[in-house]
Target: EamA domain-containing protein
Amino acid sequence: MLPTHPAAPATLAGPDARATRLALTGVIVTVTIWGGNVVLLKTLLSHLNAESINTGRFLLASAVLVTLAVRAHGWPRWTWQTWLTVAGVGLLGNSVFQTLFLIGIRLSPAGVAGVVNGMVPVLVLPLGLLLGTRVTRRQATGVAVAFGGLLTLLLLTRQPGSPVTPGGMAWLLAAATAWALYTLFNRTLSGRLGALPFVAFSLALGSLPYLLYAAPHVQLGGTPPLAWAGVALSGLGANVVAYLAWARGAQVLGAARTSVWNTLAPVIALMLGAALLHERLPLTVWAAAAVILGGAALANWPGRTAAPPTGGTRHNAPTG
Model:
């Protein structure tokens, strides 16, 4: 029971302000992890093949998330149709996305891979039109600006000696489209089934086909222990810690306010790629990246939306 003393509202403001600060800190940590994860994956690919990296990440993240989901909510009592839907959406967002994304990273600078990933919140809007979601004029303008920057980036692939290649861009765009489609289904299913149970079991079930394919290709010998530590860091950081912090941020700050921070992850990827991997991208690539990220920020800036979200946590940013 709340005290009736006049100072009660001031007392309540303290914890609320602290919760907001913690949630905001978690969101900033999340986008830092997601941006840094692109650079980490690019580095790991010089020591391990994609199958080894994804197998380690999938197994570790699935085990932790499923354990957390069952402890918090118990074992899901879903119909077999729901289990199939979760598995199918998880297949798209994990096996398909991760396969396409790591191929794209191997063929592209980490900074460029991070920027193309930044297109995901933009791709969600036009794809959502197919499901009847309305788009505001501001959102449409942001999408147009971002696609203008993407077109510039695509044109740069035709320049001799450009670090941006047509093949790399094609794989990265395919990966971003796969994650955008996953995000659309995520919004509906996480609202109906619970965000944590959906993400946990969609990852566990959706990664099974990939694990079966990858098992014969896993490199167990001759790999530096530090590389496996990097795989564990990627799996726990990008797929567990970052997700939980992002979900908390969306709960406390609101999905609209939180989603704008997605734009920082590609910026961090660009900066870390230049600082740690010594990627020297032409000024034209940086300019195109700025246009893409500016459009993404405009499209996702908090404001009055044409249609309310269908519920659940918006898990827009690709975890890499």
The CA atoms of residues 163 and 281 lie 7 Å apart. The mean pLDDT is 87.
